[in-house]
Amino acid sequence: MAEMDPVKLMKQEVGRAAAAQVKSGTVLGLGTGSTTAFAIQFIGDRLAAGELTDIKGVPTSFQASVLAKKHGIPLTTLDEVETIHLAIDGADEVDPQFNLIKGGGAAHTREKIVDGLAEKFIVVVDSSKLVDKLGSTFALPVEVLPMAVAPVTRALTALGGVVELRMGIKKDGPVITDQGNMVLDVKFEAIAQPAELEAAINNIPGVLENGLFVGLATEILVGEVKDGQATVRSL
Ligand code: 5RP
Question: pTM score, two decimals?
């Protein structure tokens, strides 16, 4: 049998470890991305095996909703539940203070709502996502109303960012979010004060939400591969 690509293996094992923390009778925030997709799959497996009962998921994207349905996880909405006991979601960068950049899948607006409401928020990443300073490897995603793309681009440039409109792959033109908006990817040298930058960007008229998640994560599960063996450590 062909060996699994190490990054995929890390994502799988970290997704499995997060799914193992889910308890019966809870409401889950279901994140977006390739690592969370494994967690959703393993939660579905545990439900099918009868290990878990009475689970409801609040999806953070169209992708999460499709995956949850595929794996038999009943869905609910924020109109119907007051508490999210546990959210599981990926990240594009994680700093030593557990601050994150998210939005690689353009889902950060709904993700911040759901992850931010959760009593516990587990972040599932492979070790390549750990950074000393946010912004060192990944451009910060900013969701913007389409009619405001030009003024928001100017405002973000004035804040010191290099701005690019995210373009579709296998689709001509820009990426359109689940809310019908566009995404600007903004490269900063390194983000010294994430909370201040998060607030400054969200204060620009036309910005819906940016991908800085400050003080929201409670546990980081990191997948690593050594000598072909995947391990998961908790930070
Ligand atoms: C989507 C996200 C994802 O969680 C993030 O991009 C990580 O994705 P992956 O697990 O595929 O690396 O923020 O908006």
Answer: 0.95
